[in-house]
Amino acid sequence: MGAPKTKQKILLTGGAGFIGSHVAEAYLEAGHAVAIVDNLSTGKKENLPAQAEFYRADIGDAAAMEKIFQKERPTVVNHHAAQIDVRFSVARPVEDARTNILGGVQLLELSRKYGVRKWIFAATGGALYGETPDQGAAEESPIHPASPYGVSKFCLEQYIGFYARSYGLQYTILRYANVYGPRQIPESEAGVVAIFIGSLLNGKTPTIYGDGGQRRDFVYVEDVARANLMALTSNGNAVVNIGTGRGTTIQQLLELLQQELAAGLKPRYAPKRPGEIFQSIVDNSRARNILGWQPQTALAAGLKKTIAWQKTMDNG
Ligand code: NAD
Question: Is the domain covering 9-181+220-245+282-296 a CATH 3.30.2010.10 domain?
Fold first, then answer.
């Protein structure tokens, strides 16, 4: 692809991770310059695109981050680094808040100091609204996070709003549903996809917690990366859900994977997890209206690509 109209210098946190690495590829492909900051706690060096600058650093390390801002002078910060494990956040809420709130505020302070124009933030829709209606929760729905993770991600949204009102920072906040695809890790919000594929490929009985009727909104990672690209040029500050607006039950997900892998293994049913949300779907109308974004990858097609990737990992 040729040079974009306005080439951006993007500081991308969490770019060695699952979603962040796809975002980095989309930005580089569009001709932007990308510098990645990642502490490799869950991210992997193999995920880093060769053309991106890479800094191994913790977003909570004030001195290291300041040096990076000084050197890179980014026009845009895209913030994907986070403590992403919902269960860990319940067990260790202080550590979750340290990364997801304090780490984020630190980046906002540096962004103010070094004149960053725009922020794009990977927020959560899947862990924010609590139980949602069949048509999905819209952005103005009441916020009912069921975990400290949901609270900490929402809290940083509020800080971003403050920096916009007080210092003129522009922003697009992307509230993802359950993102799946190549490079995903079992701990993530759509970890069930990786876990089921892993079980079926290795001939292990998959476990369903509860009756499998729980519904989730599975959105493919390349569609999510495209939303991050569109957010670069969108005008006006906005909070936008990024999901398909459609629910898939855990039982249906397993059946789709079984068909794809011609695996006949029957699942084991374990007791429902306490506090688990039954239905989590996001309404994506605003993304269509504001970003002109819509999901393009059907679940079956996205799962095919995810399986192909997971097979190469199991063999490699
Ligand atoms: P991931 O763990 O693959 O990516 C997170 C990255 O951040 C990793 O590379 C990790 O090494 C890095 N990181 C973590 N703490 C850091 C720190 N203190 N300093 C520097 N780097 C650090 O997970 P992911 O699923 O790709 O999630 C990316 C973002 O998207 C997160 O902000 C997450 O909250 C958000 N999100 C993900 C989903 C989903 O379904 N996967 C849904 C909603 C929101």
Answer: no
